[in-house]
Write a structure and sequence with these properties.
This protein has about 600 residues and is α+β, with helices and mostly antiparallel strands. The chain folds into 4 domains: about 140 residues, no CATH class; about 200 residues; about 80 residues, no CATH class; about 70 residues, Roll (SH3 type barrels). The chain is built from 24 helices and 16 strands. Helix 6 packs across helix 7 and helix 9 crosses helix 13.
């Protein structure tokens, strides 16, 4: 905690004195302070002292940081210069360490090292749960009411659990196994979205996939129905599936899917894995997924942890959230394996890079960076197939984007594995004909894609299409035909899928910096107050912000109000709490307890002595 020349008298002043990086880190750690965008420091301070916001911040603390917060609140007073000398950071840490919680036997646990407590205090200060500076610190009032009153009988370890006896796996083997799973994920998503191109997925009114559709996708992908449902959610989160125009309950491929097919396999996987990382089946998994993977990475390279060990690590990191993590941890590990983030139970090298990177999925970008180590482990793309006499075509490897679109339009996928098998049928060829493929186009494309001669039965099915009525817009005259590539009317596509607006679970550092800069500019552009008006700097436009600040500082506050008969009045009080639509206070003269509905308070400002 870097000391400041003047001890801040309010939380608002402390935030104003912080540098841009510290403010941006606060907004990143507590995104509820940034939405809607605050216009000044008093709004950030006011939001940060609400019980709900403080409770969410306490959920971010480790077991040891939570213990330090409990001890800070248990002291029951601000840590000011009048308390046994100057309470700088070191003496404050020593004061807490010298008075640890006692067990029933009267034994005093070994006090933690002061540097560990100083680090915990830095964390609390950075989250806005403490305010002041190194010479005067106090917890926000809402923190004391949000924490349990009893201290733990034993002091938590200041450091995260270590599992030195956990087994290691060979790194190259982990990467190879994870790369195989990554390739399978790309293949399954491609099959799933192509299926929705021919048979749009049906959603129920709640927006979830219908049970019958889930079973259909499970049979299609040869996966359990719940796992197949997660695959569809990943495809939607990655922007590959969207609502059909005119129907919100039908899912079809987006234009982003066509762009995704043109990416390299590594880039395709990176987009899907990032979508999985940011997609959450339950609200509780929003933070747990990243934290679980960070736990594997923090122990060591290619270390295998059991679900029980990971649960122990997560329980230390987020002790207030322990009840929600037990079953989800094992589920996340299972998903990480088939997504390709882990292999043989250990975090792959390209999986660790994904977890470390901050991902924002806004659109498919062919220029997006891809993990180079994964690219070297995936098979190369091919642009040809081997057409067989039984009306099948075998792709000896993953097809490139253009070849995959051609074969997907002309045939149906029969099986997947080391080589994809496509089957031609009268139905698949008629479907292509209705999309605008002419007979000469089909023959030319098959001859160009096949490394084997086209069998007569297949040519017969193709030429039999001439008996069908000509489709509309069979050929686009406004576009040229180049090098044997025929232009036909494409399938129906949904617009790029956009995420539903909601309270963000996190904001980026760049977005937080923009908010901070906007607040700085707003304050710099504000007109200077006239010196003829005394104490105007103590007045804040919002009565609610002023009352919350008075609760934290313990200063006398003046407020005006309108009573039930419509008559105006004013009081001088010591504010005790603000919440649930009421101000709890005591009259500064008579010590009478007051409860005033916030809706009746018209204005407020803090009465401060001139220093």
């Amino acid at each position: 905690m870097a000391p400041h020349a003047d001890t801040p008298r309010t939380l608002t002043q402390m935030l104003r004195d912080w540098d841009d990086k510290a403010l941006a880190r606060l907004l990143m750690s507590r995104p509820d302070l940034a939405v809607p965008a605050p216009t000044d420091y008093s709004q950030i301070a006011s939001r940060s002292t609400t019980r709900h916001s403080v409770s969410q911040s306490l959920d971010l603390l480790t077991a040891f940081e939570l213990w330090v917060a409990q001890r800070a609140c248990a002291l029951g007073r601000p840590f000011e210069q009048s308390d046994s000398g100057v309470f700088d950071a070191d003496s404050f840490a020593e004061a807490i360490a010298a008075n640890p919680g006692r067990s029933d036997t009267g034994r005093v646990p070994n006090p933690p090292d002061p540097p560990d407590i100083v680090n915990a205090l830095d964390r609390l200060l950075g989250l806005g749960l403490l305010w002041g500076d190194a010479s005067s610190l106090r917890p926000v009032r809402a923190m004391a009411s949000s924490l349990t009153t009893a201290d733990p009988e034993t002091i938590p370890d200041p450091h995260a659990p270590r599992f030195d006896d956990a087994p290691h796996q060979p790194g190259d083997l982990v990467d190879k196994v994870a790369a195989g799973s990554a390739f399978e994920l790309v293949r399954r998503i491609d099959v799933l979205v192509e299926h929705c191109d021919h048979q749009p997925a049906t959603l129920v009114k709640s927006g979830e996939l219908a049970s019958r559709e889930t079973r259909t996708f499970g049979a299609l992908l040869d996966l359990p129905a719940p796992v197949a449902g997660v695959h569809l959610k990943i495809a939607r989160a990655a922007g590959l599936l969207g609502a059909m125009p005119g129907s919100d309950l039908k899912l079809i491929p987006t234009r982003g899917f066509d762009e995704w097919q043109s990416l390299t396999l590594a880039a395709q996987w990176q987009l899907l894995a990032a979508a999985w990382l940011d997609q959450h089946e339950r609200p509780a998994s929003a933070w747990l997924k990243r934290l679980t993977l960070q736990g594997i990475a923090s122990i060591g390279d290619f270390v295998v942890l059991t679900p029980e060990q990971l649960h122990t690590w997560v329980s230390w990191q987020r002790p207030r959230r322990v009840p929600a993590t037990a079953r989800l941890t094992a589920s996340i590990l299972d998903q990480a394996a088939w997504v390709g983030v882990t292999g043989l139970g250990a975090l792959a090298s390209f999986g660790a890079a994904l977890v470390a990177a901050t991902s924002e999925i806004t659109a498919v970008s062919p220029s997006a960076s891809e993990p180079s180590c994964l690219a070297g482990l995936l098979p190369p793309r091919v642009d040809h197939v081997l057409v067989q006499a039984d009306l099948t075509a075998i792709a000896p490897g993953p097809l490139d984007g253009e070849a995959a679109r051609d074969l997907g339009s002309l045939a149906d996928v029969e099986s997947r594995g080391g080589a994809t098998v496509y089957r031609f049928s009268a139905a698949s060829l008629q479907r292509a004909y209705r999309l605008g493929w002419r007979v000469p186009d089909i023959v030319s494309t098959l001859e160009r894609r096949s490394r084997t001669p086209l069998p007569q039965p297949l040519l017969y099915l193709v030429h039999d299409l001439k008996r069908l009525p000509s489709p509309n817009e069979a050929f686009r005259a406004d576009q040229s035909v180049s090098a044997g590539h025929f232009v036909h009317s494409g399938p129906l596509r949904a617009p790029h899928s956009e995420p539903e607006p909601s309270m963000p679970a996190e904001i980026t550092f760049a977005a937080a910096q923009r908010l901070v800069q906007a607040i700085r500019h707003t304050e710099a552009d504000a007109p200077e107050e006239s010196s003829a008006r005394p104490q105007t700097s103590n007045r804040i436009d919002s009565p609610l912000d002023t009352l919350r600040e008075a609760v934290e500082t313990g200063e006398v506050v003046w407020f005006g109000y309108v009573d039930t008969r419509g008559a105006s009045g004013e009081r001088l009080v010591l504010a005790k709490s603000v919440g649930e639509g009421r101000l709890q206070a005591r009259d500064s003269r008579t010590d009478e307890a007051l409860t005033v509905p916030l809706r009746r308070i018209t204005s407020a400002h803090i009465i401060r002595r001139t220093t």
